[in-house]
From TrEMBL:
It comes from Sediminicoccus rosea. Residues 1-19 form the signal peptide. This is Secreted protein. Keywords: Signal.
Length: 90
């Protein structure tokens, strides 16, 4: 009984989720998410070249060969690298 009370206190301390916290993106480690990341890279306004391109190609290859988690990690790194290379307005 004491464990149940402790669990209830822990759960209540997190509080209910609020709708005004902004939107969150749910990700899953599956082939569809690999394809979504690859599509985001393809639609990127910055040309994917050099290291980001290599990461993207390796990520797509890994996803295709069943190494989805590693492929997703590479695709995410490619997206971050592409954003870092994007020219900044100012």
């Amino acid at each position: 009984m004491r464990r149940l009370a402790t669990l209830a206190v822990i759960l209540l301390s997190f509080g209910p989720a609020r709708a005004d916290e902004g939107t969150s993106r749910t990700t899953t480690d599956n082939a569809e998410y690999c394809e979504a990341l690859a599509a985001r890279l393809a639609a990127s306004p910055t040309p994917v070249s050099g290291t980001p391109r290599e990461l993207a190609e390796e990520g797509k290859r890994l996803c295709a060969s069943g190494h989805v988690r590693t492929g997703i990690a590479k695709l995410r790194r490619a997206l971050r690298a592409t954003r870092a290379e994007a020219p900044r307005g100012g």
